[in-house]
């Protein structure tokens, strides 16, 4: 393999730049020419492809977002789109791809390989941590710490006013950010899409808190929980009319920011690991870290298999809010 | 004056603890006995009043919120409520008050003085910076930096996806947080309640940005702007259907967090200044900093007079987003 | 087991409070009475032992340091000291201990068990991450992020002035903090006590950087590296007289600060795990996390066995600074 | 004036980029061509001068350091150096300069004007805040908050171990950073070069603390204090042999980091103010903010006049550490 390209695709996550850097520097180290594709598959089709040098990735390891920009591509889902993309790669002699993204990205790469034989090795870039085949995804640790920082701040004002806060954090299908930021933030309850939390449990938790003279409470609600924080909080407001209940949604702030040390190292390992996998003939697999070892998992598995949340963590929320 | 008390009231703001600490340590320095009243006027009525020592305020200067807790009191607005409050103070021999809060707090203190002759000196504790009689209020600098930190993070993801973000920041009647976090965050437009911003200006700003090849834009909307970020953003979505427009509301996170150096020093000066004013016979005035000098402004003025936003700052947003 | 006690000992680390909280709340959950011992073994001897309730550990999960305070005890190393300590525990009916600390702490606990049969389960509290029996120690992730934050800031000024910085980070016998903060900070070289780095390698790295037009460089030196940053930096100054070389030692700042999400969760798991181990009859073992599973390792092993640094990480520094 | 240039010179400070951005965007707004000179006067001599566009300063407002790089120039102090610099400017038709730096920078600009008639308006870029003609210098607020963040962290470990810390902060001739970070950090004593602090006062402060049962103490020492933290701390160690005394020097970390909101706004006002001053015929003056108003002060005054530290602040340290 003489020429490869790297790109980011789908929702951005902190650490993607560290991952790009590792892939680029790794390629240079191994004497391979490497290109950067801007705007994901869309840019591949439009030919937004430029050579990357060592200095192209200087001073980016600490930056949130992605210098290659990201997008969700409709065109690449069409046969015509992929044909043009293939042509663009062929024109430059690019033989393999490092794709940083999630399952949408990997699905595209799988189809692309089946049609044109261009191998892709993926790296898991998503704050949600819901990818099978890796213990942690790039950006997850940063997102949890960003959410936690907000929870700590809200705790200040909740305590000062004896308030109950329902805080919604990201995670459309997954409660990872919720459970971790909830435990770390000392939340009284965490509501995740993986398990059903009846309204009675919320009510019971608040009542028990008052019985133990807790004057403020924080309940973390994952985005994917039915109704979200707004609806759940509103129902509780009706029940406890005298309580001072507030609802807040942390929103897009969780996607940005300088990556934590953990995410920079994870991203560096996975960017390098993906590149090395590609060189060694891997294809249609995602580089991941399982039990602190680099492993490659077929896209077919990352796409179809689920990564469950540890019961231990769910149990811990209850014990620690005693 | 032998015995005084300090309390926080109204919405909490970062730096209130530094202000409490300064009042307490100042009293001890001058050989005066000082009490802390919990939960503002409500606690005054309920007798939640305890002696404060030097160690009572150890290790709190860096903490958000208020260790004395805060509340908005309905009861103190009644004659009966104030009568009980007065009795509680009399029982303990408390002759004067340091009140950390905003105009609601000061209005109560004014009435209380007129009825019972108990002098109060105020310190401006509110993140909104909308109090006449001081260049800065306690908590404002921290709130601006918290908002800015969020804007910086959102900029990362906005850039990566070529998105337009409408970000709502706090400020029900005042655009201070909006204008400062907007300038510091490099926003393309800032919408404040003090001046009317027609929808056409928003449209024009976005178009000009595209003409200059800006691919992402950030528009800061003060809470008090008619419609808020949600309504304004939704209207723009209808007009620019192809643009990727997102709306986010920073919410209560802006009220918490460790105070900045600026706020801790400001709070320390004003807490000490309020205490010293009280000792020196001041009453029904708020301690403030104007042109870096400590000044006392009658509650009557802080309540009725407006503090305008500098035109310079509004002009600067436009120039700097060229 | 009806009554247990928890204490912190040796150098403090961020997350110790989260660990104390988990042990206390866990004990309450299981209906066991729990005491807190202040100042480690010294306080055990002096009888600084008080009952802990649920509210005793409210609002401490986010705090650096240890509310129980820590110390290194000379007296506990004597037979007389331990005899008094045992008497103190007996007087209160305390049957088991949760000890948060490092190998010094565990050595004491082992001897204490052999003499008096009081079982201890340990939790690894040290920023150095050099304890066998756990992948991560409590405080390590926070210390790495604190060091990284400083490195990021120094990079700003290094770049602006085309300077070379030798930055010393903590780690007397271990290069963990150095290697992780070095990779995450994009350092050009990392010097750790586990491997010998000849001065020629430092010289070569700087020369290669200049050849590739790098104008600034950062070299991370672990505290335990012979000579430290000061001596090594000074030798390099003599060789490259024209280069602008600076030396800085990050110092004790690495021990403090609000723990990261990672450390709070780790500390919560280990505090609860140690308590549950104690209840279930474990003794003279340390609770740790290996491959994301809770495991108990005999003190004899944590004290005698070494935890090596991954060669992968050392290799990565070289590749990524290409 | 049709063509101007902007540069940074002397020690870098956070906010310089925001200042560059404001000068560049301001010039574009007024229809003036603007160039950036890299590496200060050295780059002027070597002709490192390039046109700046609006996008040249996109996404830099939040970055520490200076994208134009900085240097202290020996050559510009020679007549020959300045002659070449003048030639370089003449070749490009540059008629005026915006210089971001301190008194060294302004001294050079003054001489350059006297010799060649090229007008310069300065902006105060230094973390030390020791420039006459402005209440605040660019970078000062950020440096104070960085120092404060470190002090907060050290307080955690000082408290946990009942230790005394001597912390050295930047300020070769000025105690501004020391006094502000000391007050905000709740220090027991602050030692600044502006006033002589006898060793007896240090001893007395520590003794009084112990008498009031303070178990830990923090003493802030400005870099310019005779002996610095190392020497003073060592002397105290000899006197109080049993006390656990530590010394730490915060170092270059204080120069970097994302600027605070305050610094970004200050820098934006001063960058724009300097540019507008230049357009309006100002020369050999520094733009500053005094009592919240933009003012221009002759270099001759900024260079010769001193800005004293407020006695109020020094008095406050003593009262608040009661």
| Helix and strand element order of chain A | EHEHEHEHEHEHEHEHEHEEHH
CA-based shape of chain A: elongated
Largest interface: A-C, 47 and 47 residues
Query: Can you tell me the CATH class of the largest domain in chain A?
Result: Alpha Beta
Whole-number mean pLDDT of chain A: 96
Q: What is the count of helical runs of chain A?
A: 11
Domain module tally of chain A: 2
Question: How much beta of chain A, percentage-wise?
Answer: 15-25%
Structural class of chain A: alpha/beta
Q: What is the CATH topology assignment of the largest domain in chain A?
A: Rossmann fold
The major pleated sheet of chain A works out as: 7 strands, mixed
Tell me the number of strands of chain A.
11
Using only C-alpha atoms, the radius of gyration of chain A works out to 22 Å
Order of adjacent strands in the largest pleated sheet of chain A: 3-2-1-4-5-10-11
In quaternary terms, these chains amount to: homotetramer
């Amino acid at each position: 393999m003489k020429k490869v390209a790297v790109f980011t695709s789908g929702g951005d996550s902190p650490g993607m730049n560290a991952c790009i850097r590792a892939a680029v520097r790794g390629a240079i180290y191994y004497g391979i020419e490497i290109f950067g594709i801007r705007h994901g598959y869309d840019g591949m089709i439009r030919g937004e492809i430029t050579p990357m040098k060592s200095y192209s990735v200087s001073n980016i390891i600490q930056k949130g977002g992605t210098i290659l920009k990201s997008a969700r591509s409709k065109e690449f889902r069409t046969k015509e789109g992929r044909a043009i993309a293939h042509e663009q790669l062929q024109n430059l002699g690019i033989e393999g791809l490092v794709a940083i993204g999630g399952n949408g990205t990997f699905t595209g790469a799988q189809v692309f390989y089946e049609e044109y034989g261009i191998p892709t090795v993926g790296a898991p870039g998503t704050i949600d941590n819901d990818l099978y085949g890796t213990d942690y995804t790039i950006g997850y640790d940063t997102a949890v710490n960003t959410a936690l920082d907000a929870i700590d701040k809200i705790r200040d004002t909740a305590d000062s006013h004896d308030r109950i806060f329902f805080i919604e954090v990201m995670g459309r299908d997954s409660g990872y950010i919720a459970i971790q930021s909830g435990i770390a933030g000392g939340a009284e309850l965490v509501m995740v899409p993986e398990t059903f939390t009846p309204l009675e449990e919320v009510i019971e938790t608040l009542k028990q808190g008052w019985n133990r003279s807790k004057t403020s409470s924080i309940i973390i609600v994952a985005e994917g929980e039915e109704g979200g924080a707004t609806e759940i909080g509103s129902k509780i407001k009706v029940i406890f009319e005298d309580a001072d209940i507030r609802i807040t949604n942390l929103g897009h702030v969780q996607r940005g920011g300088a990556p934590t040390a953990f995410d920079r190292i994870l991203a560096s390992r996975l960017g390098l690991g993906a590149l090395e996998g590609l060189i060694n003939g891997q294809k249609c697999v995602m580089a991941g870290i399982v039990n602190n070892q680099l492993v490659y998992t077929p896209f077919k598995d990352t796409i179809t298999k689920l990564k469950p949340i540890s019961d231990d963590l769910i149990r811990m929320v209850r014990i620690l809010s005693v």
